[in-house]
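Help wanted!
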Amino acid sequence: MLNSKIPAGPLEDKWMNYKSTCKLVNPANKRKLEIIVVGTGLAGASAAASLGELGYKVKCYCFQDSPRRAHSIAAQGGINASKNYQNDGDSVFRLFYDTIKGGDYRSREGNVHRLAEVSGNIIDQCVAQGVPFAREYGGLLSNRSFGGTLVQRTFYAAGQTGQQLLIGAYQALERQVALGNVKMYNRHEMLDVVMIDGKARGIIVRDLITGKLERHFAHAVLLCSGGYGNVFYLSTNAMGSNVTAAWKAHKKGAYFANPCYTQIHPTCIPVTGDHQSKLTLMSESLRNDGRIWVPLKKGDDRKPTQIPENERDYYLERRYPAYGNLVPRDVASRAAKERCDEGYGVGSSRQAVYLDFATAIHRYGLMEAGKQGIENADADTIIKLGREVVKEKYGNLFDMYEKITGENPYLVPMRIYPAVHYTMGGLWVDYELMTNIPGLYCLGEANFSDHGANRLGASALMQGLADGYFVIPYTIGNYLANEIRTENIPTDHPAFVEAEKAVSDRISRLMNIKGNQSVESFHKRLGKIMWNKCGMARNADGLKEAIGEIRTLREEFWRDLKIPGDINDLNPELDKAGRVADFMELAELICIDALDRNESCGGHFREEYQTPEGEALRRDDQYQYVAAWELQGENKWELHKEELEFEVAKPSQRSYK
Amino acid sequence: MGLTGLFLISFLVVHSGINACIWANDHGEMFNKAAHFMGASVVIRILENGLFVGFIIHIVQGFILVAKNRSRRKIGYQVALGNRGSRWYSRSMGLLGTLILLFLVLHLYHFWTPSRLGGYFNIHELQPVAYENGKEIHNLYAEMLQVFQGNSPVVLIYVLGCFSLSFHLMHGFQSAFRTLGLHNQRYVVIVKTVGTLYSIIIPLALAMMPLSIYFHWVN
Amino acid sequence: MEHYKMNLTLKVWRQKNHQDKGQFVTYQVAGISSEMSFLEMFDVLNENLIEEGKEPIAFDHDCREGICGTCSMYINGRPHGPWQGTTTCQLHMRAFKDGDTIVVEPWRANAFPVVKDLIVDRSAFDRIIQAGGFISVNTGNAVDGNTLPIEKSRADESFAAAACIGCGACVAACKNSSAMLFVSAKVSHLALLPQGEPEKHSRVLNMITHMDKEGFGACSNTGACEAVCPKEISLDNIARLNMEYLGSSLTMDK
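Answered by r_m:
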């Protein structure tokens, strides 16, 4: 039975009441309690730093060469907070409401309200740490609007907000390392959770340089290991982003919730060929001025600038006259896929659509000419003036595009295509961020908790830091207060020995396949199955096929995988093999979850469930629940439902008409 | 390095200023008087010791720095970054400094030892010369004529020494200011401009000395 | 943009582990598309090596979008390759032409020992940050973010310094293997903000002391670091650090 442990009482008092009544651990006891933090992104670094500050003995692990490399660093846009600095009517309630609604009514009210409540503290904390947020001339913090919200609540640091926030958390973490409160383990990958008497008591890690396995004990284990978008092979995630930590916990009994919720971002730089290793996202602000189109004729090979206006199909403007190019992420993404699937795609791969700034350049050029008092400006002057305005607004994005593609987007339209970008699903956690395994917590993108079926822009950074700075320091005490009498368990305990042996056996098994195909080739094939059949649009037949194909591929993987090198050595191929093996298992669960959810909501679109206009059709009467999956054995899962209750934000259908 | 460097830079101004006296074209009268003043004043003699200390610190520190910095990369690169990242003279301060040091030894041997230590240790004494007040002073000018006139290898070495100095200063001048913390954009531009002009003008002036005498541009 | 295919000769540093002496090994790769990124070209090479039963080349990389600072190849004598303001992962193959020979080396500095092939150990950077690259504020202590207005130009300058990704290209390019650009970027980032004021003296002294301890060289202002920095961190930060350092050494007792 799933107990979400949402505190009783009115929504806005829940967190306050919880904080006032949760158990505390006295400082002398904190020194004796050990906590393991896996991952050093925003959630992990902020949690490790904060817990270190409180006086706990923290051990922190990352697979990268430094905690500062975690993929939170790549977030561009910004971080939301309901500060209402702009006097435009923002409030905790509005941020809460927008997040619930944006998540298509598939998240918990209690969690989301807490997130909105602490959002302001995050900004204060980050400013105090020296995060150089953008400022106005008066010296106060600047805000911008983001992701179509009606208020300006997004704080940002140019296009590098994630980097600046992560560096802030990283510095706080390194300070605790210097003070001896946190011990940092770089280039260490967690490969199992150790369970003793039903509680998480430690982990098995592999030193990625020497290949040696190590056992580490703790009174509580925090997984802050990020999302699993790389199950699709191509995504905007970093190459190393993986599901392994969360998946190992799942295999030890932790429930995996809503795995099918995948966010696909519409404005990414398209795939150029089979060699493609990852995708790069460009801020969706580009859609404010760019017009999206494909040629009217299938397989049109002409250069975009040679295709006259009446032979272009501005399909978003055609299909959604009210919202046009500004329809939500999921709608824009699906529409692009539909056009490309129909054979209208552009570029050498035909998996791209144009994002054209010619109209905007012309419009801005005219405006600018008017401002400067140039009468009867000729076409060249207008274009020149227009380009300057566009450069001012989107210069850095245009530069990035040119660096990657070699094409000048001021002269030719950009080519864009949707890409996997964020996964809303993750380990099931209760209000205290604890999984169903006592002592095992999950924070940040790795858990499922706050974004429901779809995440709003600039909310991922907010959630990661909320969990790490302001939630876990309270909720972990509530558990550890009962653990003060638990002596450190020596790592020669049979549970540790057994867990290490299982990990070691699996590594040997992988190494001993000695087949013919590389990890990368399997990962690519897995990604293709997932993208084609469990990507932007899914249907029951496709999902069933995908499950079959994944099983076949997995069987082939364990029969024909080739890993060069040694076990006791730095061996990136072996590291990758372990991760891909876990993705192979997760992929099946994603499909099962997508198949089970006979509705369309947020990042999950089932073709069978759409309105006549092609919009997502949610079925609240049957699917207003969190799907938490329990592993029952190989390829067998049992579904546990956590019914969602909406006392304050009453569900309604999204509409863009 | 920066502090001593700036100190030596200020010395060069004095040095080239006095040297410029030969262009008064008065058979070295003005020059000899100036040189005498520098030699006779107690204050200047004390400063001279300071100058030696400055030189020695600069040289010793320089050698230690270069050696230490070199040891920081035991295995080098197959392909060098070279001029794609920095100017050759910025990377060659040790070499340029060593060349200047070698030149300096010769230079001291030519002029400093006879004028300060002449008469001791079998070192030849400078000829005396007397001007209107009748007091005899060293005729350093005559010594210059002797060293440079018709002696093309020495003149060449002096000119090369000044070249080394020029490039040493080209980096050293602005680098010294950076080391002392100058980062205001406006002043950085000024320092860079002044530094470049200084690095050209001062060594040029110094090099003109032997050239002028060699080619009989002064008498 | 016309795309083309190319055949290349690669001379890559191979070194089994830290103790191994290491040497250059020459590889041929064929049919490389000008649309590939440099690391994707390495992926192709590695897939070929695996196919041939050889061990692939180990290299550091992660985000592949120029922000995490993990990638670190010294390509044809320049950290991160020929393009200005670009990380290795963002370098694309159209920078090269058919028949080119490309020499790829690891970062070279005693403070960055080679771990394997092109991977070096940059944990010295973490330890420099531990020495003082932070503002000592515990979670929950903060006052409202707008209580402390900061002049926009200062905030922008601080941000420009904070853009450092800690890749180590500055050290790799410096003839002295100095980490001054890295250290100065952090010192400037924090010294320019009022929040960083209380610790500014001890921060700069401790970080510089630690930089020396880690075995990085001293700065001689050649400017190579600035020229190769993928984030174009300004050399002025080093001058600012020098000023902070001088001021601090004169005022601090230790």
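OP: Thanks! One thing I noticed: The domain at 123-251 of chain C is CATH 1.10.1060.10 (Fumarate Reductase Iron-sulfur Protein; Chain B, domain 2).
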